[in-house]
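[Meeting: bench + compute handoff]

Bench side (C.D.) handed over the final construct sequence. Compute side (W.E.) agreed to return the predicted structure before the next meeting so the bench team could plan truncations. Sequence as handed over:
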Amino acid sequence: MRVIMLNPPFLPRFSRESRSPAVAKSGTFYYPMWLAYATGVLEKEGFEVRLIDAPARGYDIDDIKNEIMTFSPNLIVIDTSTPSIKNDVEVLEKIKQIDSNVFALLVGRHVSALPEETMTMSKDIDAIAIGEYDYIVRDLAIALKNKSDLSKVRGLLWRDKLQNRLTKNEPMPFIEDLDSLPFVSSVYKRHLNINNYFYGHSRYPIITIVTGRGCPYHCFYCCYPQTMYGHKLRLRSPRNVAEEFRFIAENFPEVKEIMIEDDTMTVNKNHAEAIANALVAIGNKIPFSANSRADMVDVDVLKKLKKAGCRLFCVGYESGAQEILNNIKKGLNIERAFEFSRATKKAGIMVHGCFMVGNPGETKETLEKTLQYAKKLNPDTAQFYPVMVYPGTEAYKWAEEKNYLLTKDYSKWLTEDGLHATVLERQDLSSQYLINFCDRARREFYLRPGYIVRKALQSLFSLSELKRNMKGFKNLVKFLFKKENDKCMSSSRCQ
């Protein structure tokens, strides 16, 4: 039984797994991490698997056709995203022209949110995995191998050709024992070239892993908890995490950093502290970064994380107006965020700050609050962007109900270059105004004399930071000194 796990060809360096899939201005390019986890599960079950990351390899559809003809898979699993969904289905159809017998399964956030709608896009789609799909793919592969009834595969929406109908099976429970999953880094070792991947805020080369799945918070815009991994926090044991760090050190001596891609690694303070202790116990020497909320202010725990190798947190501050944070259910207090900023500085951990504009209640005044907030917090790096809404989220429902969506043609959610195309238009705050604000905020943040001096000194005293800063600046500079390359959709109000 042979399986191809495919991140399909689309735009160069397009990241489907980003929380806002696009080509990133910073040059950031994500691993196909969730495909890789499922690949490891299949290999553990004894299946012959190829993981193909077409955007990373520079593959086009002809390269994929050659892979199909050479490998002759029985099952092909295709990752998807909202802005690429039309392309992704077209790739599937072209694969079916080569081998009409291969079973084609779509996975990812978009198809999980809109499974029935997606199935109507093409009769060549055999099935869709809804939600966390590691075990859905495994059980489907076993069923196909044994030629057994697909109605027993939980989490599957599939095309019953005998009955000429779509059948939606019962949901697949979330995976509770995350330690039972193979190390995703071991899958990278067998299938990927780690030099193809880059995070703008991290040292290069980098490897990404998770220490947990699910997020107990209910931020109205966040895709993964609402469409894939739920709001119940499930954690790997600290020992298991430390063992993967050890594996990476032994098998990837060139790696300069590990990125922990949990929705928020520090949400459970005791677990974060336990991971720090486990990493110290094995003598970890690899720096790591992690997603964190801006309310973990225990300096002692932060110092333990620093000792264990924590270099940087990626933090969603979002807005400098408390009423906006309340509207988006962030569960964050601005004063607490300032405490977090002071605590990370005391611990010696840098911060990459994320600021999102255009949320419910946003005004020109709250935008300016956010810019001043960002300057006062003064993180190591920052990004400013209009809110992007995706099917399956409360944010999408809000935009739909308010009639703010300019289009539901998802292919138009990107520019020709693959950058975000802002698809929300409000009478009180135009998309173009938001884009121009982000453009200005980026310039004002990065071109402050004090900031430039700080980054120069940082680069002077650390060769690794010099390399990171130079690579990041090279990607960022083209967006600092010209009009924003994002755009709003054509509209009489978008002037």
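W.E. noted at the follow-up: The longest helix spans residues 463-480. C.D. will use this when planning the next construct.
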